């Protein structure tokens, strides 16, 4: 299968998933006895807004027709309006995507850069002191609540030591953001040559990224170790040793054979890490999509929740697509499906 | 002196159970045999008798909790059990080559077949890429792989089972081994392919005057292809001798029962012979391990039997072997 | 796998089964699990005997002692309402266990039968259920839990039920894969041939074997339940102040963290870490226990 067809097929797979979600939310609202107008309009709505929404939803029509109106709207990009922000949900989300992506990529990237080597080293020297210590830290990483870690870090590095800026936003309050190129304040400032702004953006990134990296490294350490241990005892490695291949050659064989499973694992972890990222955004008032979604769920901003949920689904499908494609490039046994 | 001499090799598995007791499985408890250049020895036994373990113990491929605890393995006069891991690594894949089962999973799935042959060559013998490549193609030809140039570019998963096994044999031959150990090389292959592979092995062994050991649970294979055979039971070698002699005049009761069994039972499957349960290597009986299921057992069998010649070149580990042979005539 | 390893690894019957020897053996096998279990037991004692250990009532406030740093009277200080943090942290252990245990039980009660049934029967039902579970995996678990709790009502009971339901796919999947492996074994096939009805095969033959994997997961899933319920409380969903639940306490303490009153949020967090860590350590050991390859002397 060529890449084109693969991509198309994967994108097509999103559709039943999204349809399922849309259908579920549509039905839950209608059948669950909740008032769809009330949910969409929110507690701050005026009577006029109520009428407007009621009209748009076409509640006088049959359930069937309602669903199609609804679906049609969605397909045109009309996700409704967030009553919290009074803006179309789609606009709200698009504004925030890059903000979250910056945090996610930095955090997971560093977490992977730390986690994989540690997991590998633990696997090559099993039951040694490094192994035990790293396993302990990995378990610890699984046990520390992300939001608490963020708070503690703010306390230590902002309040006590004064090294970090206050955990509000992505740059200093008095600064104005650089012209948008990538959506990342840090990179945009570098591109525009605004060094002060870049420094501010970087200093604001440090704590959230460290939090994210610590929490994301825990599962990566654990699974890298487990995967590598499995590879170390598989037929290929045993035969390599039986063939008298030198230790460094065997090691390379182990590493190469571990790469694909580890990569695949990191890809699947990313969906879970979006949750962690959302909590960090919340603690540091980051202004990203994760924080938006959390606020929407907690406050009952129904239109925004729906948009957010659909976006998450799309994001996951894209991540799996990328992973599968990269695996296809590396692994001779893989085919694009 | 034979090329490979194994003498009373002992390997134990030591573990702790949940009651914090140390438990020792005497997985190998007296393995003695020898192979000479140009000889094809077949090691047979039930599953769990210790055949593969013998090969692994000899070349230092044991992993914890398994450990060699006694005996001797002399290869060309050198005591292998005293060598360091690096020294053994130098011998493996070079002078002592192994052909394992599961060829398709044993080959590195991420490297092309030809490159793997080159890799094993350059690991042991200083050679340029072109020299190694030339030899790789020669070996592929020698094992009967058609169109070696093209096949060398293949990935392991693209090969059939039989083809992959030929590749393993080619890999074993790359560095002119003096001893070839084939551990169940034909499991999982088609019957016709099995015959081809075994014919190939025997042919190569004779032509290149290698010493060869084939480990198998199939008595038929041993009967047709081997010069000598060794029978293993419960971790020890109970009988060793020329194939014809052992088949015609088996000295050990276990071998007798084996051969006397119906033709369908010539192939030793998962269940043990005569329906007896497999011996518990954690709790072997004192004296002869076979006495619990032996029809000739006597009081003397409570002491350990030594391996003794019953005829030139034919030995058995049984107190009563000589007497039984006499009465059988 | 060396063929000499086909030995029966059951313990030979020793005279006098000794509990201490068994504990020593298991601790030696997995010190991690032993430590984890100890931690859990300590918290369990704190939870059950909280009345003994708490110096003050966890919800009564001392208005004149608001936001006191840790001192001789209040070892963990007082919070924004003047309540003793130490007592509240100890009482919070009850919430930890009180939520996690029922939630895991619910997950088992739903997940194990589902796993048995889909694994054994297969077919369309299996496909549909598995696709549904796969669909759920697309979402981060915290978001899913948050959304469902927010939508269905913010009571403690609801949190327990939702967490129990949302975690059942994990058990279902584990049990299902074990059943799939067992389905074609001689043992099961002969039971079928003997004419056993499906339910009997599932519960008498398959269950005892398939349950091992699920049991190994219980501690880890309990850890997850404790974590997520605290996170929900931190976000203000499900449990409100002034309930002495650790997540809610961290929520309260968050605003004080950046102005220097670190103790309000720190101690509940530490307690949370310790309990979750203990559960994770026990879970780690349990998972090792069921992996036969690791049962060797060190």
Structure description:
The complex is a heterotrimer of chains A (337), B (329) and C (298). Chain A has 13 helices and two strands; from the N terminus they run H-H-H-H-E-E-H-H-H-H-H-H-H-H-H. Chain A is an all-alpha fold and 337 residues long. In chain A, strands 1-2 form a two-stranded antiparallel sheet. Chain B is an alpha/beta fold. In chain B, the strands form two sheets. Chain B has an eight-stranded mixed sheet, with helices on both faces. Chain B has a four-stranded antiparallel sheet with strand order 2-1-4-5, with helices on one face. In chain B, helix 7 (161-173) runs parallel beside helix 8 (191-208). Chain C has eleven helices and no strands. Chain C is elongated, with a radius of gyration of 23 Å. Chain C starts with 18 loop residues before the first helix and ends in a 9-residue tail after the last helix. Chain C has helices spanning 19-29, 31-48, 50-53, 85-121, 123-137, 141-152, 156-183, 186-193, 198-234, 246-257, 263-289. Chain C is mostly helical and 298 residues long. Chains in contact: A-B, A-C, B-C. Chain A binds chain C through residues 17, 20, 28, 127, 135, 139-140, 142-145, 147-148, 151-152, 154-155, 158-159, 166-167, 233, 268, 271-276, 278-279, 282-283, 293-294, 297-298, 300, 305, 309, 312-313, 316-317, and chain C through 32, 135, 137-143, 146-147, 150-151, 223, 227, 230-231, 234-237, 247, 250, 253-254, 257-260, 262, 265-266, 269, 272-273, 276-277, 280-281, 284, 293, 298.
């Amino acid at each position: 299968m060529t890449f084109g067809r693969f991509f198309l097929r994967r994108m097509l797979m999103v559709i039943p998933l999204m349809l399922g979600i849309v259908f579920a939310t549509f039905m839950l609202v209608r059948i669950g006895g909740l008032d769809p107008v009330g949910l969409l309009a929110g507690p701050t709505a005026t009577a006029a807004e109520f009428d407007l929404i009621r009209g748009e939803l076409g509640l006088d029509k049959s359930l069937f027709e309602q669903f199609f109106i609804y679906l049609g709207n969605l397909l045109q990009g009309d996700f409704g309006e967030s009553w919290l922000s009074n803006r179309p949900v789609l606009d709200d989300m698009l504004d925030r995507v890059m903000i979250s992506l910056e945090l996610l990529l930095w955090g997971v990237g560093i977490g992977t850069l730390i986690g994989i080597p540690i997991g590998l080293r633990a696997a090559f020297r099993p039951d040694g002191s490094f192994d035990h210590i790293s396993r302990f830290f990995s378990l610890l990483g699984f046990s520390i609540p992300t939001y608490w870690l963020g708070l503690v870090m703010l306390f230590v590095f902002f309040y006590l030591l004064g090294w970090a800026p206050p955990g509000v936003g992505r740059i200093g309050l008095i600064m104005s953001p650089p012209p948008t190129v990538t959506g990342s304040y840090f990179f945009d400032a570098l591109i525009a040559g605004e060094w002060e702004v870049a420094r501010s953006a970087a200093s604001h990134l440090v704590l959230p990224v460290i939090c994210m990296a610590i929490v994301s490294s825990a599962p990566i350490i654990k699974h890298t170790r487990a995967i590598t241990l499995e590879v170390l005892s598989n037929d290929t490695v045993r035969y390599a040793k039986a063939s008298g291949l030198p230790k460094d050659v065997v090691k390379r064989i182990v590493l190469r054979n571990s790469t694909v499973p580890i990569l695949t694992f990191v890809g699947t972890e990313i969906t879970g890490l979006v949750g962690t990222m959302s909590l960090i955004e919340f603690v540091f008032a980051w202004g990203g999509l994760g924080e938006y979604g959390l606020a929407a769920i907690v406050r009952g901003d129904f239109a925004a929740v729906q948009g957010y949920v659909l976006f998450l689904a799309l994001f996951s499908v894209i991540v799996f697509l990328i992973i599968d494609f990269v695996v296809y490039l590396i692994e001779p046994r893989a085919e694009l499906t | 002196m034979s090329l490979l001499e194994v003498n009373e090799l002992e390997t134990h598995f030591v573990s702790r159970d949940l009651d914090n007791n140390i438990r020792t499985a005497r997985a190998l408890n007296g393995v003695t045999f020898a192979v000479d250049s140009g000889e094809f020895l077949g090691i047979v036994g039930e599953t769990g008798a210790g055949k593969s373990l013998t090969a692994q113990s000899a070349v230092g491929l044991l992993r914890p909790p398994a450990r060699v605890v006694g005996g001797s393995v002399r290869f060309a006069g050198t005591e292998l059990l005293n060598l360091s891991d690096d020294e053994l690594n130098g011998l493996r894949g070079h002078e002592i080559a192994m052909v394992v089962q599961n060829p398709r999973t044993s080959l590195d799935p991420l490297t092309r077949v030809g490159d793997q042959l080159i890799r094993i060559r350059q690991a042991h013998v200083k050679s340029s890429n072109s020299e190694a490549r030339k030899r790789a193609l020669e070996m592929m030809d020698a094992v009967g792989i058609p169109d070696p140039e093209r096949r060398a570019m293949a990935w392991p998963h693209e090969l059939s089972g039989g083809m992959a096994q030929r590749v393993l044999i080619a890999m074993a031959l790359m560095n002119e081994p003096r001893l070839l150990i084939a551990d169940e090389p034909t499991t999982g292959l088609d019957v016709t392919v099995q015959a081809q592979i075994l014919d190939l092995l025997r042919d190569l062994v004779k032509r290149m005057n290698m010493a060869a050991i084939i480990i198998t649970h199939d008595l038929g294979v041993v009967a047709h292809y081997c010069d000598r055979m060794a029978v293993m039971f419960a971790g020890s070698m109970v009988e060793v001798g020329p194939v014809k002699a052992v088949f015609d005049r088996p000295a050990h009761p276990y071998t007798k029962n084996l051969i006397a069994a119906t033709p369908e039972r010539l192939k030793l499957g998962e269940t043990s012979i005569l329906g007896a349960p497999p011996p518990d290597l954690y709790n072997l009986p004192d004296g002869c391990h076979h006495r619990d299921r032996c029809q000739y057992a006597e009081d003397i069998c409570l002491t350990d039997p030594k391996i003794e010649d019953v005829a030139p070149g034919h030995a058995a580990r049984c107190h009563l072997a000589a007497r039984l042979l006499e009465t059988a005539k | 796998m060396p063929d000499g390893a086909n030995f029966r690894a059951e313990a030979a019957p020793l005279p006098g089964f000794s509990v201490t020897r068994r504990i020593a053996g298991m601790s030696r096998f997995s010190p991690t699990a032993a430590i984890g279990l100890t931690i859990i037991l300590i918290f369990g004692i704190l939870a059950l005997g909280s009345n003994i250990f708490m110096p003050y009532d966890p919800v009564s406030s001392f208005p004149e002692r608001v936001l006191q740093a840790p001192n001789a009277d209040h070892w963990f200080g007082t919070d924004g309402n003047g309540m003793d943090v130490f007592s509240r942290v100890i009482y919070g252990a009850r919430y930890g266990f009180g939520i996690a245990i029922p939630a895991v039980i619910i997950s088992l009660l739903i997940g194990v039968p589902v796993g048995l049934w889909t694994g054994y029967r297969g077919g369309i039902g299996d496909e549909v259920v598995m696709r549904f579970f796969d669909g759920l995996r697309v979402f981060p678990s915290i978001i899913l839990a948050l959304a469902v709790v927010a939508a269905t009502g913010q009571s403690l009971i609801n949190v327990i039920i939702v967490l129990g339901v949302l975690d059942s796919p994990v058990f279902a999947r584990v049990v299902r894969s074990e059943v799939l492996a067992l389905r074609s074994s001689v043992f099961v096939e002969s039971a079928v041939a003997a004419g056993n009805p499906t339910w009997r095969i599932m519960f008498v033959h398959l269950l005892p074997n398939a349950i091992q994997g699920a049991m190994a997961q219980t501690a880890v899933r309990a850890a997850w339940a404790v974590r997520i319920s605290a996170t929900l409380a931190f976000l203000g969903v499900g449990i409100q102040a002034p309930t002495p639940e650790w997540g809610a306490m961290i929520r309260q303490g968050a605003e004080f963290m950046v102005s220097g009153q670190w103790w309000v949020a720190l101690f509940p967090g530490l307690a949370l870490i310790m309990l979750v860590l203990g559960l994770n350590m026990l879970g780690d050991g349990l998972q090792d226990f069921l992996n036969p390859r690791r049962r060797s002397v060190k």
